[in-house]
Amino acid sequence: MSAARDHRPSRAILVVEDDEDQLNIRTLLLSRFGFEILPATHPRQALALARSRHPQCALIDLRLPTVEDGLALISELKQWDSLIRIILLTGSQLPDAQELQLVDAVFHKPVASRDLIEKLQSAVNAT
Questions:
Q1: What is the pLDDT of residues 62-102, one digit of tens each?
Q2: Using N-to-C axis directions, what is the helix angle for 43-53 and 67-80, rounded to 10°?
Q3: Which helix (H) or strand (E) holds 37?
Q4: pTM of the model as a whole
Q5: What letter would DSSP give residue 95?
Q6: N or C: where does the chain have the smaller number of CB atoms within 10 Å of the terminal CB?
Q7: Vertex 47, ends 43 and 51: CA angle to 5°?
């Protein structure tokens, strides 16, 4: 079990999106469903938040601003906490990358809010 697991707030989700408008929309939507949102616009900011706040789940836009940035973030988060649930959002075709094996779910944009909420609730309840 990860050391980070002992310090997790309930229903905490790291939301990583480099488009601030999209980040604000997701933050508003998810907070309405009782999630504690840890918003980040950059992978380094996301890692710092993850290490200090210990989220149960991460909702990550693949392009941050490049696919390589999103893939590196997935890898680093899983190295730090192997139990964190990762849900990926993408507006393009998925690359053939080893890091995608670390992802719990993938949603292609646009995503139905209900589907996203259900998956996040399931991920948070599973931890």
A1: 988 878 889 999 999 999 999 999 999 998 888 888 888 99
A2: 20
A3: strand 36-40
A4: 0.89
A5: P
A6: N
A7: 170
